[in-house]
Amino acid sequence: MAAHPPVCDFGRPALDAALPGVDGRSHRIFEHRGANGLLIAFICNHCPYVKAVIDRLVRDANDLAPLGIGTVAICSNDADAYPEDSFDKMRRFADEHGFPFVYLQDEDQSVARQYGAVCTPDFFGFNKDLKLQYRGRIDASRKEQAPPGTARDLFDAMRHVAETGEGPREQIPSIGCSIKWKDAA
Predict the structure, then answer these.
(1) Is residue 158 part of a domain?
(2) From first to last of its 185 residues, what are the pLDDT tens digits of the chain?
(3) CATH code, domain carrying 82
(4) Range of the domain at 24
(5) Is residue 185 part of a domain?
(6) Does residue 184 lie within any of the structural domains?
(7) Reduced to 3 states, what is the DSSP secondary structure of residue 126?
């Protein structure tokens, strides 16, 4: 089922947490911030929306790194109910797509809840002070491959954040599969 995140809550502070990475190490989210900001992408392995944009996310993360923007990806889906999002398959997914950023598992879903993430992909772009400046889409493609020349909404917004500390006031929300929440026990 497709879900849309709310509009950007400008200035909302980022939250730190320690999560296991597919590299076998524990990572604090803030360890991966760049000098000019941090992009946190809530993604998963099985969502068709993520599959359609993953290579562009890798490209954008590579292009943002020299601008001082670090990137972290987090999978918060219930891997028991959705085995394609298991930790082992997360590792394989990261390898297949050449992730230049850490891919972290939020098994208890606490980080996704703290951030208010609602879908995959759901992007949170923070400035150097770790204040939210972008909560929009990667581009206009949705579940399809983007045609050449498609505007790079996420990259352009985060480049602006790196240069000015502020995100664009006009943002189009991402769309994706809803996060697969665990049943309340």
Answers:
(1) yes
(2) 577 787 899 999 999 999 999 999 999 999 999 999 999 999 999 999 999 999 999 999 999 999 999 999 999 999 999 999 999 999 999 999 999 999 999 999 999 999 999 999 999 999 999 999 999 999 998 788 778 888 999 999 999 999 999 999 999 999 999 999 998 54
(3) 3.40.30.10
(4) 2-178
(5) no
(6) no
(7) strand
